[in-house]
Amino acid sequence: MKAVVFGGTGFIGSHAAEQLVRAGHEVTAVVRPTSKTAFLEFLKIPILHADFSDADQIARLIQGHELVYNCTANVKFHLSMEEHQEVEVRLARRLVEAAARAGAKRFIQLSGIKVYGCDLPATPVDEAHPCRPEFPFEKVSLEREQVVQEVSARAGLDYAILRPSGTIGNRDTSFFSFLYKAHRGGGFPMIGNGAAGLSLVDTRDVGRAMVWLGESRDSSGEVYLLRAFETSWMGLKEAIDRVRGVTAKVRRLPPGLAMGLARFLEWVTPYGGNPWLTRLAVRSMTANALFDDTKIRRAGFATVHNSLDETLSNAIADIEGRKS
């Protein structure tokens, strides 16, 4: 099928584009003029530049494509609500409305587990668990899903939404890259005792799941969680120790002190800046984030990268390769 990917230069979007190519689909990437496109060029994907504020131009570029993938995101936590909404909500609305106007068959939205907020139990939750977002980043993530559902229902457009758990893989420049570089420097950052549970998934499988959402008739109108590994923050540190053959020290920060420091850093950092610690980051490293993806597995999709050590080895090799 002919697929168009928005956000294909991003961490997860690049994996969606790669796996679509591997699956034999005819893929086009629509990017901003300032986007770095080296990996998409390596995949030999046609690249179209667009003004993402121009709904008519977006619709013209979508025309002729059956599948539309929205992987756009602003991954910074420290933004004003207005800045969060511009990409997560208003752009999503523009894209899904344009997809409907252009006659696309299905719209696939990349979402995430932050829609649930951080107040989760110590046992895995599934798609039916109530979403209780607290921070702006979480709130707009849920609002984005609601916009996709609302517009698709009104326009009669098929859609599917994927909520991957914490992702580890090639081309990461944030979550795992930060942890690994700290580990390589001799100290692994830990807030509290590191006992909070978390679900993780290899980004290659996220890309494969996005392909499956476009191909599967059963995925129409559905929201799916995705996970592969279940560990804890301390368990993740120990797995990196094991893969590297080096035991890093734990750089521990008490949760109360961490939250106070995060509040101060957010207060002194202008919106759009990058404080090294935020309140959402503190909550994310001290609250459980365990998920049950039985729904997508029963529907027919299964992860294939099911070894945490293999996933870590692959991601570490990628980071080291980018150094040279």
Helices, strands, pairings?
Layout: E1 2-6, H1 11-22, E2 26-31, H2 38-42, E3 47-49, H3 55-62, E4 67-70, H4 81-101, E5 106-110, H5 136-155, E6 158-164, E7 166-168, H6 175-184, E8 187-191, E9 197-202, H7 203-215, E10 222-226, E11 229-232, H8 233-244, E12 249-253, H9 255-268, H10 279-286, H11 294-299, H12 308-323
Parallel strand pairs: 1-2, 1-4, 2-3, 4-5, 5-6, 6-10, 7-9, 8-12
Antiparallel strand pairs: 9-11
Helix pairs in contact: 1-7, 3-4, 4-5, 8-12, 9-10
Describe, in plain words, how this protein is organized in 3D.
The chain has 324 residues and is an alpha/beta fold. The chain is 45% helix and 18% strand. The chain has helices at residues 11-22, 38-42, 55-62, 81-101, 136-155, 175-184, 203-215, 233-244, 255-268, 279-286, 294-299, 308-323, and strands spanning 2-6, 26-31, 47-49, 67-70, 106-110, 158-164, 166-168, 187-191, 197-202, 222-226, 229-232, 249-253. α5 links the parallel β5 and β6 (158-164). α4 (81-101) packs parallel to α5. The chain starts with a strand and ends with a helix.
Distance between the termini: 37 Å
**Helix proportion:** 40-55%
Order of helices and strands: EHEHEHEHEHEEHEEHEEHEHHHH
What is the arithmetic mean of pLDDT?
94
Describe the strand arrangement of the main beta sheet, using strand numbers: 3-2-1-4-5-6-10
Radius of gyration: 19 Å
Q: What is the beta-strand fraction?
A: 15-25%
Helical run tally: 12
The main β sheet shows up as: 7 strands, parallel
Structural class: alpha/beta
The parts where pLDDT drops under 50 for at least 5 residues are: none
The tally of beta strands, per DSSP, is: 12
Tell the overall outline: globular
